[in-house]
Amino acid sequence: MISKEPVFLHDSYVDWCGKQQIPVIQDFGIDMMRIKTAPWDLYGMNGAACLLNGRDDFVSIFCFELPPGSKSRPVHHIYEEIIYVMDGYGSTQIETPSGQKHSFEWGRNSLFSVPLNSTYQHFNGSGTKSVRLASVHNMPFIMNLFRNEEFIFSVNHKFIDRLGPNAYFKGEGRMIEIRPGRHQWETNFVSDITNFELKSWAERGKGSSSLRWVLSDSTIGCHTSQIIPGTYKKAHRHTCGTNVFTIDGKGYSMLWYEGKEDEMVRVDWDHGVVVTPPEQMFHQHFNTGDTPSRYLAVQFGTVRYPMLWQKKRKWTSGNDTSVKQGGNQIEYQDQPKRLHKIWLEELAENNISSEMNEIFNE
Q1: Helices in the chain by DSSP H: which ranges?
Q2: What tens digit of pLDDT does each residue of 126-184 get?
Q3: Which domains does the chain have, with CATH numbers?
Q4: 226, 203, 231, 206: which is closest to 343 by C-alpha?
Q5: What is the pTM of this model?
């Protein structure tokens, strides 16, 4: 029998990341467009592991870089992932369980998911410019459960049901309307989340709109929200593990814990910046530019498959209900007073007019 040291409070996923000979970056927020990557033979791309301070036990992020004219190694695995194209353009080839191959082209701000355990390969379509991809995945959960890399990357079971009745590899899809904040677009691939029509969600703030993406029938949920010029969202909180990427626009986010409003953390927006609010930390998003601003939020659990009882409760009640009524949202009139003043000062610096006059009697 092989003697082993006693195991205590071990995180197999974090340990695995540390053995990959790539940068492992841990921070409150990470600029995915500027971090360093290194060759990662496992995937045939350059990469880095991003450990956000507010992450949960289920999902984490890889930053992948495809040099000009390169391609990744063909791989398949039993963890799910959502790919957000931060920069560059190229294509992905997927082999379905029947052996049929599908290829689709993507560019900056595309969003897609490869059906579970299907073999795939990424190709950079430019001979002069690198590609940057963000992979939000549930490998932490899978690695901590099985603790075996070979198993994760070599299981050959074909998950035919994950393709669904329609394989949406060309941007097709279907709208599933439930109610504001829960409307969904089901597909495998969204070519551009900056121009896709979102649905009104006034309960989250003036002019607010949002849409949830159901990608490859995954258990990783994501949604895109928009903030129109001269407005901002209402503050809210939830469980840890929601990774929020800035897509476009000008503005910032403020984060704080209840009772610690004097210890706020500010994150200024820039394309590719991701922040993951820690457990039950209030956060609020402010647009200070003259164009609509969008962000992408990715997390474990969906409105179709909540996975956790906290998520089920969140999406059936409390998500856009005032904290005074037992929910998780702060209404405008109850937010910390100085937040509106700070926002107005920044609007004035940018020569932007407020559209919140009737709410705050400015």
Answers
A1: 12-18, 139-146, 149-154, 309-316, 337-349, 357-360
A2: 999 999 999 999 999 999 999 999 999 999 999 988 876 667 888 889 999 988 888 99
A3: 12-163 (2.60.120.10), 174-360 (2.60.120.10)
A4: 231
A5: 0.95
